Amino acid sequence: MIVAFSVTPLGVGEDVGEYVADAVRVVRESGLPHRTDAMFTSIEGEWDEVMDVVKRAVAAVEARAPRVSLVLKADIRPGVTDGLTSKVETVERYLAQ
């Protein structure tokens, strides 16, 4: 499964990069395949391990912010691995035609 999620601290002002970095650090330390862009972090793995990482990422931000917003989108497709790479490669292959 691939989960794309965004954790946003609320009530801490406009500059939230420091708080978001706390969440991304949890993802990177998880050892699961992941990518971070300007809007979301995507992580790939089994349901329980991915959701555990999301929960810990939220907790890392929650420890420093009075309120946290979580946006999550999941692609649940049993048997598929390396979806983070293969899905992008498929699109790039079509673009190259």
Mean pLDDT: 95
Q: Percent of residues in helical segments?
A: 40-55%
Shape verdict: globular
Overall radius of gyration:
15 Å
Binned strand content: 25-35%
In DSSP terms, counting alpha (H) and pi (I) runs of 4 or more, how many helices? 3
Unreliable segments (pLDDT under 50, ≥5 consecutive)?
A: none
Q: Which structural class should the secondary elements be placed in?
A: alpha+beta
Q: What quaternary form is this? A: single chain
Termini Cα gap: 28 Å
How are helices and strands ordered from N to C?
Answer: EHEEHEH
The order of strands across the largest sheet is 2-3-1-4
Largest sheet: 4 strands, antiparallel
Q: How many beta strands in the DSSP annotation? A: 4
Describe it.
Residues 3-92 form the Thiamine-binding protein domain. Belongs to the UPF0045 family. Pfam families: Thiamine_BP (PF01910). InterPro entries: MTH1187/YkoF-like (IPR029756), Thiamine_BP (IPR002767), UPF0045_domain (IPR051614). This is MTH1187 family thiamine-binding protein. There is one protein chain. This protein has 97 residues and is an alpha+beta fold. Helices cover 45% and strands 26% of the residues. The protein has helices at residues 17-30, 47-62, 83-96; strands spanning 2-10, 34-36, 41-44, 67-75. It has a 4-stranded antiparallel sheet with strand order 2-3-1-4, covered by helices on one side. A hairpin with a 4-residue loop joins strand 2 and strand 3. Helix 1 runs antiparallel to helix 2 (47-62). The radius of gyration is 15 Å and the shape is globular.
